[in-house]
Design goal:
Layout: H1 7-16, H2 27-34, H3 41-58, H4 79-91, H5 97-106
Protein name: 23007_t:CDS:1
């Protein structure tokens, strides 16, 4: 979880990473939490992106919390790649509605994992 991750997302990610699979939230619980009214998705994504851009400019883009059981960890190879990602992001504008609508559609399905 990086420093620019919004608190509500970081908290949800930690719940999903619970070491006991049965303690992890179901897709229905995740959907209910995200659409409970206390999540302003457009604002959250905009603030997170602004924070990410600030961190990229300051050179402070580092991972502070790593999942204890992860096998791999991405590392930035050099500053050139960092600037490449920043340029790439600026050339592609993402919009919140498509992922949000996709998430709403997924919540209608039942998964037995």
């Amino acid at each position: 979880i990086t420093e620019d991750t919004p608190y509500c997302w970081a908290s949800l990610m930690q719940k999903c990473w619970h070491s006991v699979p049965l303690e992890r939230p179901s897709i229905g619980e995740i959907h209910k939490e995200i659409y409970s009214g206390c999540w302003n998705l457009a604002k959250i994504f905009t603030e997170a992106e602004n924070k990410r851009q600030e961190l990229l400019k300051s050179g402070g883009f580092i991972v502070k919390h790593v999942h204890p059981h992860q096998k791999n960890h991405s590392k930035l190879l050099n500053p050139t790649i960092d600037s490449m990602f920043s340029s790439l992001h600026q050339s592609f504008r993402f919009s919140t509605p498509d992922p949000v609508n996709s998430f709403q559609n997924v919540s209608n399905y039942s998964f037995n994992i």
